[in-house]
Specification:
The chain is mostly beta strands. Among the domains are: about 110 residues, Sandwich (Immunoglobulin-like), CATH 2.60.40.10; about 90 residues, Immunoglobulin-like (Sandwich); about 140 residues, 7 Propeller (Methylamine Dehydrogenase, Chain H), CATH 2.130.10.10. The chain contains 1 helix and 45 strands. The strands form 12 sheets. Strands 5, 6, 8, 9 and 10 form a 5-stranded antiparallel β-sheet that branches. A 4-stranded antiparallel β-sheet has the order 14-13-16-17, with no helix packed on it. A hairpin with a 2-residue loop joins strand 25 and strand 26. The protein is elongated and about 90 Å long.
Amino acid sequence: MKKLFYLVSLCALTAMPFTFTSCSDDNDPVTPAKGVSNLSFTDTDKALNKIGGTLTWALPEPETNIDDYVIYLGGTATEKKTKVGETPKGTKSYEIPAGTDLQAFLIVVPRNVAGESMNMAVVSVTDNVGLPIVTNPSFADTDRKPGQIAGTLLWSIPADDAQAITGYVIYAGDSNDDEGTKIGEAAAGATSFEIPEGTVYKAYLRIVTLSAYGESSFSLAVEDAKGGFYILNSGNWNENNASLSYYDYATGELSTEVYKKANGKGLGDGAEQILIYGSKMYITVPGSNRLAVLDRDAKEIKSIAPAGEPVNPRCMVADNGKVYVSYYYAHSVVMLDTASLEIEKEVKVGRYPEQLAISNGKIYVANSGGLDYADGYGKTVSVIDQGTFTVDKEIEVIINPTQLKADSQGDIYVISMGNYGDIKNTLQRIDGQSNEVTVLYNATSMTLVNDELYTLFGQWGESKITFKKYNTLTEELISDNFIQDADVISPNNSPVLAVNPVTKQLLILEAPYGATSSLYLFTPGGTLEGKAIDTGGYASKWIAFDYE
């Protein structure tokens, strides 16, 4: 197999039969300190020992202290033998003229008035002597999960080679000359290939062109889109300042007022929950009596505001193309079709329903009785049959149930908030078959990832927060202290716990009254990562990962 490929070198080039290291000017105050990256070149001149085509690269970030770029040909990766040309700062490509004499390497060097940087980028050159080869390959990862890629791989082919091509094979590998893992094949005439969802990320995609004359290949460096998460900020009571923030894993930066920037208006009053399902996001805003439906970039598609008396849409769960929403004031649950975005059915449940969970064809609803606390909190979980959308039964639990999670074997975990006095926040398990309720331990907030239940107990007035992790399959406590650096969190600031389902990173929101909330990031082992991050919003209460 004949291979045509490229290699990027930033400061060090060691993947070939030589070693080149040049980082000596990283601290030079005059010459450029950074070089270009992702250098790529495919020879489109089919004459023997001649080359031509487009040399491309990615600009350094930031492009500081650079005036232009100089392009050289060299016999080795360190030899700037022949100057080909130069191009101004801000450009990302240079046309190597057809008929240029072949040399082993192309080199791009940043330059300013003080001279050329030592941080050069190098790509090896292979002479194209007639075999068909793809040109202009491109790929953008649309799978936001870390370590996975998906999306459309595109390329083009010169018209005079089209008849000779018999097909393509696509591989993913760790280096530009690594055959790696075969992903799939494309027929002759194709100019694209769909990388399937969940494909394991590798640094390079390689397109092998099959033809009557032989095989050739081109390797393309790819970047893994790491996604991020949305933070829903409820806002201060009756101040109409609910908001949405976004943390980007690729940049490590948090953006505030994401909804307002995307829609030119505020989110509303007293937002409660955000749910990402399919291509859409759903946000309940009970203070404004509406359910906002957004795309994955926070642009609003539809606002669902039931007519008549306020129903206060509050909590949600999704399954099989439907989103089920608890109506707090209406003491009911509705079924929303995610295609038509119309409410299809409604069923009455207990008083002031909160969170929902789905298991074994049933919808479980926590009936808090929250606004009737003077006459007695609610103490039931309603069970709705998904097929008939009618209530099957009521299961009695500790008073003031608010949070529900379902594990993979059908059991339901419930947190009841108690009376904020002698009856404390308590975690219970409902057996999915017998409906028997078992009291486990005290907990205020929980999240369930791969049948591991992470909980925190930080009831108002307690002196510290405790963190426990529970295996829902073995029904055993795994850890009673999975966060060691927890002293930075106050139990009086309404802490909320979340866990990244892919990386297992631990996240805690802290919402002090009257001040913007803080986000704390912890390693899976419980060590604090850096300082607290200001969410830019008040009463932050929910995290939704962008690859759910």
